[in-house]
Amino acid sequence: MSEPSAPLLRVSVVVIGDEILGGFVQDTNSGWIAQRLTALGIPLDRVVTVPDSFEAVDEALAAELSRARPRVVVTSGGIGSTPDDITLEAVARHLGDELVADPAIDARITQALEWTARQGVTVSEGHERSLRRMARVPSRAHLLPGADGVAPGVAVDVDGGSLADGGATIVVLPGVPGELRRIMTEGVEPALLAGRGEPLTVVEITHGYPESTLNPVLNRIVEEYPDVHLGSYPAAVCVIRLKGAADRVEAAAELVRAFLAELHRDQGAIRVRERWRRRWE
Fold this sequence. Notes:
The protein is α/β, with parallel strands linked by helices. The chain has ten helices and eleven strands.
């Protein structure tokens, strides 16, 4: 008998920030993470955005950690030196951990403060105290590679971590896109994600008909290929996206292509297509 396959790793993203919920800043991090995960073949189950509050972060972490495991829960934002940057403390509170100063992060902060002083800027006690808040991480956390500044990226294992079947890892990342992306690609992906997914074949087919015109073939795909993920996105040029195992996706795609070929020969369908095109002009 063949060995049972290991449970598939899954990911949740918790975006933290009042400025995002208020519409002042647009979240681009979750979309970028989703693209990286799709390329790795790792499912992204949820993206949730919460305010800068301990209660909200605690509620979000509890919900995501309760989902199927193994799992990586990525948080984005709320790491900094200002009073509203509470993510590291919120994660520590959720896990019942103490906050401790990480020596490597603290050394970076010391270098930054010394550089600032050399520029002729007075570094007050309050300034230094605020900046050193960023070095305080949950006691079980370990530092991730890739941080280019003082804002850290850390990971905390829960129940054996995401490398264990029933475990999870909370990954705490800064919200600044460049810093988040660098830590993800240099720290998170090699250590926690690489080789853990099942890359999918993706086929996109475009057409110029109203979305509902394709419903007969789309319904057929749902019935005959339930393992193929189907998405249809209306616009001037509509997109049908099929994701799954290569042979199944290609078979489903052939149904769509054959259906479109029939529409192209139907004068009534052609008139509908022209009317749909003029709607977008």
